[in-house]
Design brief:
Blueprint lengths: L5 E7 L3 H12 L4 E4 L13 E2 L1 H10 L2 H4 L4 E4 L1 E5 L5 E5 L9 E4 L1 H14 L4 E2 L2 E9 L2 E9 L5 E11 L6 H5 L9 E10 L7 E5 L8 E6 L5 E8 H7 L3 H11 L11 E2 L4 E6 L12 E3 L15 H20 L5 H31 L1 H13 L1 H8 L14 H8 L1
Parallel strand pairs: 1-2, 1-11, 2-8, 5-13, 11-18
Antiparallel strand pairs: 3-7, 4-7, 5-6, 9-10, 10-11, 12-15, 12-16, 12-17, 13-14, 14-15
Helix pairs in contact: 1-4, 1-8, 2-8, 8-9, 9-10, 10-11
The structure holds flavin-adenine dinucleotide.
């Protein structure tokens, strides 16, 4: 690949955000290069739970039917437990007409997305790591990369760049974008075999000591499960919580789970990763670049869902990039349309979820009250269900007054 070629767009990072952005750009006829430092298939620490936002983008790209054939588990409901141990099962999706959520290992999902981009004739380079970014007058002039296979340096140029390089984004670092500790979650993920009692629902357990963080059990086929636990970094530090110890304790001792994990075995290690959350707004565009997905800090601050917002940001970034190239306006004011469109689409939902997260942190006893009421009162439970992050159509009803009406 000649180092002096100038691409229309280079997308850095072939995770969900990058592969989806590249597919939209290619579909619009653009000369796009997709690069990643990893070789696919590669693992990504994640809960593996995919919701309606990703499904909508997959349908739009015409790859939804293939996605649903990946080894995974369709999800129609939620099992939620409060710190006091009250547990309820709720429907999230209409079983006949709704689009279910899907638990699919990120190793499989990301490989599928990267391969789909290739199948759409997107030129791709794996094992190419961006090591430095050259800026001139606020514009990116070149990416200084290393070909990890040969060890040789490589310089890449484009009219426009899309940074989809994840939670440790070099682009974000270069722009001085760093979330404060109350806008960062740290989470653990483990795979377990032979877990009993799982159905077609995701499980979120608000355990004492980690609320409003939570412990999750997300079912995979054949009694396997993605199990994890996450907390806002500031709260974890202030309370001195040892997440690994909490995870092991939940599985071995908690009355809700210990029977179900009696014969379970850990498959691989317990891995940790950071989640930059969207309650903190980063600067996500510049003269000739856009940031998407985790690089743009777009994870839901309550649910930890980030693939959905990554896919929406990728689609919107690609659309604005195409318009900018078509009209010869690759500049900061024009690219600002991306940021506006993105917050118009996801801003309200993020705001509500952040408020619930803060409320749960300040008044954890309200969670017990809420769940006990939901367990007894079906009408209240319906109202509560409509607020949950994975529920279909949820974004439309999220207002602060509505949240307050749940509690009082
Ligand atoms: C423990 C945990 C649980 C989670 N659970 C869920 C969940 O259940 N559902 C959900 O929707 N979200 C979940 N998330 C969030 C989700 O994982 C992220 O939001 C999602 O991966 C974002 O996708 P992305 O494409 O932006 O970044 P990534 O998936 O991280 O992809 C970034 C890509 O960029 C590449 N890259 C990075 N730096 C460079 C470089 N310098 N040069 C070249 N390539 C580079 C990487 O190799 C990688 O392939 C969870 C996160 C964690 C940590």
């Amino acid at each position: 690949m000649a180092g002096d070629k100038v691409w229309d767009v280079i997308v850095v990072g072939g995770g969900p955000a990058g592969s989806i952005a590249a597919m939209y750009l290619k579909r619009a006829g653009r000369d796009v290069l997709l690069i990643d430092k990893a070789a696919f298939p590669r693992d990504k620490v994640c809960g593996d739970a995919q919701g309606r936002k990703l499904a909508t983008v997959m349908k739009d790209l015409g790859i939804y039917e293939h996605y649903r054939k990946l080894p995974g588990r369709p999800i129609y409901g939620l099992r939620l437990s409060a710190p006091n141990g009250v547990q309820i099962d709720m429907d999230l999706v209409d079983r006949q007409h709704g689009t279910p959520g899907y638990i699919v290992r990120r190793k499989d999902l990301d490989h599928f997305l990267f391969s789909s981009a290739k199948a759409m004739q997107v030129p791709t380079r794996e094992k190419v790591q961006v090591e430095d970014i050259a800026f001139e007058g606020g514009r990116v002039t070149a990416l200084h990369c290393k070909d990890l296979a040969s060890g040789k340096p490589l310089q890449l140029q484009a009219k426009l760049f899309i940074a989809a390089d994840g939670a440790d984004s070099l682009f974000a670092k270069k722009l001085g974008q760093k979330n404060p500790p109350d806008h960062f979650i740290v989470a653990l993920r483990a795979y377990y075999k032979d877990v009993e009692g799982m159905g077609d629902l995701i499980e979120i357990h608000l355990l004492k000591g980690i609320v409003p963080g939570y412990f999750w059990i997300f079912p995979l086929p054949d009694k396997e499960a993605n199990v994890g636990l996450g907390m806002v970094v500031k709260q974890k530090t202030e309370r001195g919580v040892d997440l690994v110890a909490e995870l092991k304790k939940a599985v071995a001792e908690n009355p809700l789970f210990k029977e179900r994990f009696a014969k379970a075995q850990l498959d691989g290690g317990i891995k940790a990763w950071n989640l930059p959350v969207a309650s903190y707004r980063r600067v996500i565009h510049g003269e000739n670049f856009l940031l998407v997905g985790d690089a743009a800090s777009l994870i839901d601050p309550l649910s930890g869902e980030g693939v959905g917002t990554a896919s929406i940001s990728a689609k919107l970034a690609a659309q604005v990039a195409v318009q900018a190239l078509d009209s010869g306006q690759v500049n900061k004011p024009f690219l600002g349309q991306y940021e506006k469109a993105l917050w118009d689409e996801i801003g309200r939902e993020i705001k509500v979820d952040y408020r619930i997260q803060k409320l749960g942190n300040r008044f954890p006893f309200l969670l017990d009250k809420l769940m006990s009421k939901a367990a007894k009162d079906p009408a209240f439970r319906k109202k509560f269900e409509s607020l949950l992050p994975y529920t279909e159509g949820k974004g439309k009803i999220g207002t602060w007054r509505f949240v307050a009406s749940l509690f009082f």
